[in-house]
# Entry
Amino acid sequence: MLRSLLAALLMAPVIGAPSLHAQTTHVVVLNPMDFSPANLTIRQGDTVEWQNNGSIPHNVNGTTDAWPSNPEGFFSGPVASGPWTFSFTFHTVGEYGYHCELHGAPPPTPAGMFGTITVNSTVDVHDEQPSSFEFQAAYPNPFRSSTRFSFTPDDAQHVRVVVYDLVGREVAVLLDERVTAGAPVVLEWAPRDVPAGVYVYSIEGETVQFTRRVVHVR
# Structure
């Protein structure tokens, strides 16, 4: 079950014909103490360009030594003052993390100056969410103390809502009970003693099964 949930999220099943995707370059600016934007969602084959335009020394470390869950590694080199740019083209679908070695920290508890990149398939996919199933995505996202989302089931059914980390470990069970058709269900996740990072929340019922990502920051 956990493998299928993560597979559905990272390598979503194709429904319909694939669409062509032109390569896009996404720019991340290295500010004095953060990356902007810190969280990117891109497509397979896109390039990310990091720009250090100031005098503060930085680097970009997304190596698999520092971030073991990265599908592939990337590294800009030793910490150096700007101006400089570093580019990397992402060919493998998945979730990536990276940090500045001078101002950030890698797993198991990312902190300070770090970022995430979600690489989706170049094939357009349709959501597994039925059109009659109303859903409001988690907000805020990324979040620090808590995030909230809601859904309204189209039929009365038993629904289980679980938060997983990216290796498939169950982090929290937010709901495991029968819900009423047409009645909004509002859920909040306020993790305690949970490392910053990317998590997956899964909604499973008799007529619906889908997953979403949420980013917890310190």
The CA atoms of residues 17 and 94 lie 21 Å apart.
